[in-house]
Design brief:
The protein is of the alpha/beta class and 236 residues long. It has a single domain, classed as Acetylglutamate kinase-like (Carbamate kinase). Helix content is 38%, strand content 19%. The chain has a 9-stranded mixed sheet with strand order 4-3-5-2-1-6-10-11-9, sandwiched between helices. Helix 1 crosses helix 4 and helix 6 runs parallel beside helix 8. It is globular. It starts with 6 loop residues before the first strand and ends with a strand. The relative contact order is 0.16.
Length: 236
């Protein structure tokens, strides 16, 4: 069976790399995730990957309340690069050729993000990990994911979460929460459903980029989503 999508942008939170811990990187969680992503890559899907930095950012959250917002956001963007390097290492151990590209220039550890170069890597079969957010404060990694999805010509922005999609209220707090199979951008914004940063949803809405929100904790869901199976919620 051929994948439904030829090219995807996969957005993962930094917390998934921490496993059961609240902070840092759990090697086993990273390895398991890399195995799943490698399987999708081998099926012929071209992948761009954006990682958050919450597994490190939350470690300084208490101190961050007393810090300048621009400084805090800069710290978060640097944390995403640490996560990209960890995931790059795990993916290459699975035989996946990768490149890390960062919006914040740091030539000793990664390539600077240049759109045409990123496209060339993807066309050559390399998985590209995008670090450093957008390089601008006040923008989340969700917004970075939306921008990169558009820039690389992805067919879908795949947002991996810890729940089964988009609900009318938080399913972790409300057992009677109802999951949407499909939902419009306007409804996500007007009801403040909170699945993504509002600016990221608006970017996708204005450029007609479909978003699939699915549960990463169910093994095999990345492949199912790539094949077009009805996992999670489609925002369109």
């Amino acid at each position: 069976m051929a994948p439904r999508y030829k090219r995807i942008l996969l957005k993962l939170s930094g917390e998934v790399l921490a496993g059961g811990a609240n902070f840092g990187i759990d090697p086993e969680s990273v390895r398991s995730l890399a195995e799943e992503i490698a399987e999708v890559h081998r099926s012929g899907v071209q992948i761009g990957l954006v990682l958050g930095g919450g597994n490190f950012f939350r470690g300084v959250a208490a101190a961050a309340r007393q810090m300048d917002r621009v400084t805090v956001d800069s710290m978060g963007m640097l944390a995403t690069v640490i996560n990209c390097l960890a995931m790059q290492d795990a993916l290459e151990k699975q035989g996946v050729p990768t490149r890390v590209m960062t919006a914040i220039t740091m030539n000793q550890v990664a390539e600077p993000y240049i759109r045409r170069r990123a496209l060339r890597h993807i066309e050559k079969g390399r998985l590209v990990l995008f670090g450093g957010g957008t390089s601008n404060p006040f923008f989340s990694t969700d917004s970075a994911g939306a921008l990169r999805a558009l820039e690389i010509g992805a067919e879908v922005l795949a947002k991996a979460t810890g729940v089964d999609g988009v609900f009318d209220k938080d399913p972790r707090k409300h057992p009677d929460a109802v999951r949407y199979e499909t939902v419009g951008y306007h409804e996500v914004l007007s009801k403040a459903l909170g699945v993504m940063d509002a600016s990221a949803v608006a970017i996708c809405r204005d450029n007609k980029m479909p978003v699939v929100v699915f549960n990463l904790t169910t093994r095999g869901n990345i492949m199912r989503m790539s094949m077009g199976e009805p996992v999670g919620t489609l925002i369109s």
